[in-house]
Amino acid sequence: QSALTQPPSASGSPGQSVTISCTGTSSDVDVYNFISWYQQLPGKAPKLLIYDVTKRPSGVPDRFSGSKSGNAASLTVSRLQAEDEGDYYCGSYAGSNNVIFGGGTKLTVL
Amino acid sequence: QVQLRESGPGLVKPSQTLSLTCTISNGSISSGDYFWSWVRQHPGKGLEWIGYVYYTGPSYYNPSLKSQVSMSVDRSQNHFSLRLSSVTAADTAVYYCARYEWGSGDYYFDSWGQGTLVTVSS
Questions:
Q1: Is B114 touching A (CB cutoff 8 A)?
Q2: pLDDT at position A1, please?
Q3: Rounded distance, CA A17 to CA A34, Å?
Q4: B11 vs B30: CA distance, rounded Å
Q5: Of B59, B51, B65, B3, whose CA–CA distance to B28 is shortest?
Q6: Which end is more exposed in chain B, N or C (fewer Cβ atoms within 10 Å of the end residue's Cβ)?
Q7: B66-110 pLDDT, tens digit each
Q8: Which residues on chain B are in Cβ contact (under 8 Å) with A48?
């Protein structure tokens, strides 16, 4: 199984929106609506931001949103804040009790 | 809110077996809605799913690590464990335990431990 493909970096200014892509295959992202996104701030453990493509756990700001089209999922961070700077990972159930992650995207707030 | 905490040696010699335990607080390992998981992160790199184990015992592993990995559950101690055999320097990483939600028909990691760095070196 191969990792999902994410851009290594993304950036935006405070108040702007940025979108991070996550590309998979017909065996994972395209087939399952079990895409999740995780935020990892420097020196911290990952934290769940989005699950099932679009759902937000309680406590996650609505500035974070997810979508999917075919074999590509996306995370959009609206109204960027300095505290959003960190690494973002997508994850997907890949069938047969396999789980895969993307390589991660480093988000910089300019 | 459930809390997870990894414990185990921070230094393991090459060819030996890495053993870690994840202790669960404010929750029960016997909840049928979750798989109990291990994820690692090589220094400066991304996340890698190692595998997960169900409270009744069945376990599932990343195919690329399957020959090295075993996981187990101790319901009396409310913890689960990872064993990674024949380690090399390539197994140096931060190891996270995490809870994987699946019972409601959703699939995602909803809680994570703080992580523990394991270095493989002689």
A1: yes
A2: 67
A3: 24
A4: 31
A5: B3
A6: N
A7: 999 999 999 999 999 999 999 999 999 999 999 999 888 889 999
A8: 108-110
